[in-house]
Amino acid sequence: MKKHIPNFITLLNLFSGFTAIAFAAHHNFDGSLLMMCCALLFDFCDGLVARLLHVKSELGKQLDSLSDLVSFGVVPALMSYQFWDALGGLPRKTGFSWYFADMHGIIIIPFILCAIYVCAGALRLGKFNLDERQTENFRGLPIPLAAFTVVSLPFALASFHTIVYHAAFLVVSMLMLTNIPLFSLKFKNLRWKENLHRYIFLFISAILLAAFVLTPEFYAIQAIPLITFCYIIVSLIFRKKITA
Questions:
Q1: Residue 153: CA count within 13 A, CB half-sphere
Q2: Buried b vs exposed e over 147-166: b needs ≥16 C-beta within 10 Å?
Q3: What does the pLDDT look like over 164-192, one tens digit per residue?
Q4: Measured between alpha carbons, how far is residue 176 from residues 14, 117, 171, 213, 232 in Å?
Q5: Of 80, 65, 85, nearest to 143 (Cα)?
Q6: How far apart (Å, rounded) are the C-alpha atoms in residues 162 and 25?
Q7: Which residues contact 120 (CB under 8 A, 6 or more apart)?
Q8: Beta strands 106-107; 138-139: pairing state
Q9: Are β-strands 102-103 and 106-107 bridged in parallel, bridged antiparallel, or unpaired?
Q10: Mean pLDDT of 4-23
Q11: Is the pTM of this model over 0.85?
Q12: How far apart are CA 216 and CA 41, in angstroms?
């Protein structure tokens, strides 16, 4: 019986992702973001529970990736497209008429960018399942972090030209497919020496979140791209430690 508990939690991740899609389809971005957060919680808990119960299965591994593709692949892509389509704030800053080219009501350029993100996410998850180097750390940006990063871009880059937004969206998609070694936040112990890179990253992240939360005109979500950037920088600084 206990071997099915992690898989049930993984299905809650998938359920949250599907619910997020329903919210996004009705332009309820707050609800969709909330369900993405629930999916992230379940995604963290299924692996934790599996380790605590000492149960591991190939079914659970594949189910986890399929759920992640929905919750952190399809959902943020749909949210981003719906945001462009519904609000239209960023697209109208381009000044290029070709941006508004559509095909049966679908705005082509945002659609292509979102499709690229979903495909990159699927490739990233497939590589993760086959790459034996990613048991302790990651190669390429983890899809949950990529998901929250792309969702936060409209808020973080609202004052920038849309081309910058598009470029950032594409960069995040491609980062999932790189071989950059990135550390995981799984603590085996609390020793300072072994977890220095994790402590540094968490400390910087806390400062960034506090700075944005305490500033009235900003929202905490706007700190996510900066946190992602710091995560990559800290990983590169401690590259030898991560790949050892």
A1: 29
A2: bbbbbbbbbbbeeeebeebb
A3: 888 999 999 999 999 999 998 887 777 88
A4: 21, 9, 9, 28, 12
A5: 65
A6: 23
A7: 173, 174, 176, 177
A8: unpaired
A9: antiparallel
A10: 94
A11: yes
A12: 28
CA 17-31-115 angle, 5° bins = 50
55: number of CA atoms within 13 Å, CB side?
A: 13
Single-letter amino acid, residue 26: H
CB 78, CB 25: distance < 8 Å:
yes
Q: Which residues contact 182 (CB under 8 A, 6 or more apart)?
A: 137, 138, 139, 140, 141, 142, 231, 232, 235, 242
Q: How far, in Å, CA of 59 to CA of 64, rounded?
A: 8
| Sole residue written with tokens 């599907």 | 18
Question: Distance (Å, rounded) from C-alpha 16 to C-alpha 4?
Answer: 19
